[in-house]
Amino acid sequence: MSTSRQRLKIFTANANPKLAEEIAEYLGVTLGASQVKRFSDGEIRVMINESVRGADVYIIQPTCNPVNDNLMELLIMVDAMRRASARRITAVIPYYGYARQERKARSRDPISAKLVANLLTAAGARRVLAMDLHANAIQGFFDIPVDHLRVVPIIAEYYLKRNFENVVVVSPDLGGVTRARDLAHRIGADIAIIDKRRPKANVAEIMNIIGNVRGKNVIMIDDIIDTAGTITQGAKALKEHGAKDVYICCTHPVLSGQAMARLEESEAKEVLVTNTIPVPEEKRIPKIKVLSVAPLLGEAIIRIHEDLPLSKLFD
Questions:
Q1: What's the pLDDT at 205?
Q2: What pLDDT was estimated at residue 309?
């Protein structure tokens, strides 16, 4: 191992240790020795059990459910690394919690995504590595560098290996058109859009389908599946408009509330997700297929550590 690589250290808190282990294995390093526990009153206790002085430290921690606990673990671990004289601290946040609160939708709303950015910077993070942020504007909430990775290349590679024919890629809403167009370009498919109205949070009503899906294999792509209401209604509407088979894919499997029941009963033939958020065994129904983002994150960490451009990872 080179001296440079020896100065690279990977740590994890409790949100997704399996992903951290995969990243460390990809890099050929040992996962850093640390513990994140709770005091009897519920306060978080972080213990770093090896020297990080002068090291380039990467903390793997998606801020998924329980969001506040995982966020606090990350903040306290960043603070611990700063006080232990780490040379550079990068918060690797595969899933950025509070990303959907990135603007004021009505009077007196907070912008919680910006608050999280402020907290991470104040704690001592000097760089953030994130994946498929819900809103690109979140990068601008930080006064430190943010490397924003896209998962579409991984998803495209998966579908190219499946050799689907007569495919159309569908965006479940107008906001996801850029993502759907990117996937369609990579796999050589047409694009369609579901035009929907959302009367309130987690409630969507399908209005119209823009594009031809009749007789086609449909791949519907989104960044997040939360309660799965939007995506399963979309699958139903696509079948009603003559789609042959419907395949769903997303980056972040939040899968809260009635999501699993809805996916189980949906028209979707397969649901492709990644492990930015851990998918527990009880949620791994036969329809669920999980891709690992560890090689992509591992390659990004190598390039950041060695001061190389990340543009190659977008090809």
A1: 66
A2: 92
* Per-residue pLDDT reduced to its tens digit, 272-281: 999 999 999 9
pLDDT digits (tens, 9 = 90+) for 238-253: 999 999 999 999 999 9
196 tagged catalytic: yes
Helix H, strand E, coil C: the string for the chain is CCHHHHCEEEEECCCCHHHHHHHHHHHCCCCCCEEEEECCCCCEEEEECCCCCCCEEEEECCCCCCHHHHHHHHHHHHHHHHHCCCCEEEEEECCCCCCCCCCCCCCCCCCHHHHHHHHHHHHCCCEEEEECCCCHHHHHHCCCCEEEECCHHHHHHHHHHHCCCCEEEEECCHHHHHHHHHHHHHHCCEEEEEEEEEEECCEEEEEEEECCCCCCEEEEEEEEECCCHHHHHHHHHHHHCCCCEEEEEEEEECCCCCHHHHHHHCCEEEEEEECCCCCCHHHCCCCEEEECCHHHHHHHHHHHHCCCCCHHHHC
Looking only at the bridges linking them, the beta strands covering 44-48 and 217-225 are unpaired
Residue 99 neighbours by CB distance under 10 Å: 21
Among the listed residues 37, 196, 269, 289, the single catalytic one is 196
Which residues have C-beta within 8 Å of that of residue 89, sequence separation ≥ 6?
A: 57, 59, 78, 81, 82, 124, 125, 126, 127
- Report pLDDT digits (tens) over 124-170: 999 999 999 999 999 999 999 999 999 999 999 999 999 999 999 99
Measuring CA to CA, which residue among 231, 233, 240, 232 is closest to residue 171?
231
Whole-number pLDDT of residue 208: 86
